[in-house]
UniProtKB/TrEMBL annotation:
GO terms for biological process: branched-chain amino acid catabolic process; response to nutrient. This is Transketolase C-terminal domain-containing protein. Keywords: Oxidoreductase. The keyword Cytoplasm does not apply. The keyword Oxidoreductase applies. It comes from Scytalidium lignicola. One of its GO terms (molecular function) is oxidoreductase activity.
Amino acid sequence: MEPKILYRAAVEEVPEESYTLPIGKAEVVKPGNDLTIISYGRPLYMCQAAIDAAEKELSGVKIELIDLRTIFPWDRQTVSESVIKTGQAIVVHESMINFGVGAEVAATIQNGAFLHLQALEKYILPDVTRVYNAIHKLLAY
């Protein structure tokens, strides 16, 4: 079985001569200094479109896009160096909620670049206000 959504989802040039992709080596698809986005596979194209739109809207912002290319092994060094450089990271992937590739990437960022992060999530623990707001949001649906 294979996901049909991938058919004709993206069209890229394929070299006619033989080539290899290094296993375990990510590619910096687009360099930037303000934010790092880490992805792989189909979501990479969505990320590129979102980056294009954000950079048009946010004058002077340069977002780095990293394609993991392989997920086992994956390139921890390139990801960590980029997040240390930009101080901010977004991980975009399609996976299950628990134990996915994104969780591994986020854990590695937390372990190796935590002191360099500038935009940590404020609310990681529930409180009355968050639960109250969730009630309203769900009942309004």
